[in-house]
Every structure is written in C-alpha cells, then in structure tokens.
Amino acid sequence: MPRILTVTALAIAFTTSVGCKGGGDADADTAAAEAGAGDTMSASADASGSSGASGSSASATNTPSDGPITVADVDAYERGLAAELAEVRKSADQMRSAKNTEDSTKAMFESLDMQTQPVGAKAAGIPLDRYKHVSILLGNAISARKMNPALAKMGEDTSSLAQLPAEAREQARKNMAEMRAQNSDSVIYRDIPPELREQFKQRVATRLDTLWSELFALRARVAGLAK
Questions:
Q1: CA–CA separation, 94 and 91 (whole Å)
Q2: Is the dihedral of CA 227, 214, 131, 13 positive or negative?
Q3: E-strand spans in the chain?
C-alpha cells in the first residue's frame, strides 16, 4: 500500500473513516490543542514526576528526525493531532463563512497538512522534521488499521475463481492471499517497534484513532471531497 495518502486516497479512505464529532468532545480537543499540551503522558514520565510535556517531549526532541518510534513520540503525536485538528476546525469555519472563491481557496489551503503540521509540532514539543516523520509512520499505521481489514475481506471471496482460466485463477489466488496478509499486525504495525505495539494499539483504540479520523474527515470536507 502507498505509504503517503494522496488526495485520491483521501477521498477513498474517507468512506471508512469516522465522522467528525461535535459538542463537548470537540470543544475539549480544541481547548487542549490551544493550550499546547495533552492530557496523556507515558507511564515513565508519570513515574518520574514530570509535569506537562517536559519529560516525554525532551526524550522525543533528542531523537533523530528519522529515528525509531518511542513512547514519547506517541505522546507527542497525540498532542500534535489535537492541535492540527483545532487548526482545521478553524479552516472549516472559514470555509462556511467564505464570501467568494478567494476566501474558500484560502480556507482550503490553510487546512493542508503543510500548514497545520508546524502548529502540531509546536504543541507536540518536538522539531518539525521529527513530527513529520512520526506523523507519517503512526498515521500510516492508523490508516492501515482502518483499511486493511476491508482488503482482507475482499480476499476471502473465492467464488468467482472457478470461472477463470487456470493461469488467471492461480494469479487471483496469489492476489487474494496478499490482500489477506495486509491485515496482519506485522504489516499494519511494521513501523512500530515490536515492544511498543501493544501499548500503541491501546492508545489508538482509546484516543488516537478518534483524533486521526476526525482530522482526516474534516480535511476532506474542507477540500470538498466529502460532505
């Protein structure tokens, strides 16, 4: 699968993403982002008595931009996602109040990741290059977690194989096997160090998936790719 979502993939993947939430949760995310701090920290940071983002951010900041993912990166990414989501909400508000094409184009441009990632990096407390790297690896894992089960399901239906010529039938079997393999943890979480995978999956299930999906869906709306 492509490692970076294109605009076309954005439109396709949006059909499986979670819609934007409103009300209290949205306000809470925005408030947290504007404060530039997350409400979840790693257990190691808590144990050391760190407050705010100081412990985990310092660790992530000292990591090379393309270094392996750490627990501190997951904490930083969560803060960054919340900050980016707040920025894209502002763009969505600007789009709704746009009076002309220039206003709409400006709102759309400001919703792009190239515009929101510096804000995310600042909230995360890590350099922009590191934040971009973390966003790609963790974002790809979340995307694969959402989309790969659908690919695997496509690979389960073999009812039409009997109608194919022998050579085509064998190739189709191989293609279906590859689609099923896409749903394995080793593929979905291949960029997450093995020792962090279970913890990362828990974080995705409790918070990261929601933030990522809302950001993804709202960007698609602002871009006019979804309603």
A1: 5
A2: negative
A3: none
Instruction: Identify the domain containing residue 121 by its residue range.
Output: 7-222
Per-residue tens of pLDDT for the chain, all 227 residues:
444 334 334 433 433 343 334 444 444 444 444 444 334 333 333 333 333 444 444 445 566 788 999 999 999 999 999 999 999 999 999 999 999 999 999 999 999 999 999 999 999 999 999 999 999 999 999 998 887 655 545 555 666 666 777 777 777 667 666 666 655 777 889 999 999 999 999 999 999 999 999 999 999 999 888 77
Asked whether residue 37 is domain-assigned, the answer is yes
- As for how many domains the chain has, the answer is 1
SS3 174: helix
Q: Given the structure tokens 């695997």, which residue do they identify?
A: 152
Instruction: Retrieve residue 110's tokens.
Output: 């400001």
Residue 201 lies in a domain: yes
H or E, element range at 43 = helix 43-47
Q: CA dihedral defined by 19, 20, 25, 29, rounded to 10 degrees?
A: 130
